[in-house]
Amino acid sequence: MGMFGFFKEKDGKLPRRPLPGEEKKVFAKPAGHPTQMRHPRSFADVEEIIDRFKDKLSVIVYLNELSADTSARVLDILSGAIYALGGGIAKIERDIYLFTPDGVNED
User: Fold this and answer.
1) What is the CATH number of the domain that holds 62?
2) pLDDT at position 88, please?
3) Burial environment of residue 66 by CB neighbours within 10 A (0 to 12, 13 to 18, 19 or more)
4) Looking at the predicted structure, is the pLDDT value of residue 49 above 70?
5) According to the model, what pLDDT value does residue 71 have?
6) For residue 12, is it within any domain?
7) CB atoms within 10 A of CB 75
8) Does 39 fall in a domain?
9) Model confidence band, residue 99 (pLDDT cutoffs 50, 70, 90)
10) What average pLDDT does range 6-10 have in this prediction?
11) Residue 19 lies inside a defined structural domain of this protein
């Protein structure tokens, strides 16, 4: 489930979920760069999230309140929008994604 290969690691493989007991990846918030959190409940919320991308804000999106089909469609729309704006996407956990605008490194 990843548009444009966003979820592939540098070696071309898809990332695996951590095993129980393994350390989870923690993403630091870039200094001086605000991050917003959004919990979309419908497609109407997607436009507002894309507006945050255009405002050069990082957004953590929680898709856990959507059905599996709606979640996949919302993720596809947001992935396309962030790609078009030159940004990036990182999966934090199941149904939780970090979208970063152009010029912000999510590593």
Assistant:
1) 3.30.110.150
2) 92
3) buried
4) yes
5) 92
6) no
7) 21
8) yes
9) very high
10) 53
11) no
Residue found by looking up tokens 């089909």 in the block? 69
Residue 20 located in a structural domain: no
51-57 long-range Cβ contacts below 8 angstroms, 24+ apart: 53/81, 53/82, 53/85, 53/87, 53/99, 53/101, 54/85, 56/101, 56/102, 56/103, 57/33, 57/101
pLDDT at residue 50 greater than cutoff 90: yes
- Domain count for the chain: 1
Residue 1 has pLDDT above 50, yes or no: no
Partnered with residue 89 across adjacent β-strands are: 99
Q: Which domain holds residue 47?
A: 34-107
How far is the first Cα of the chain from the last one, in angstroms, to the nearest whole number? Answer: 21
Measuring CA to CA, how many Å separate 44 from each of 7, 39, 70, 87, 99? Answer: 25, 12, 12, 22, 18
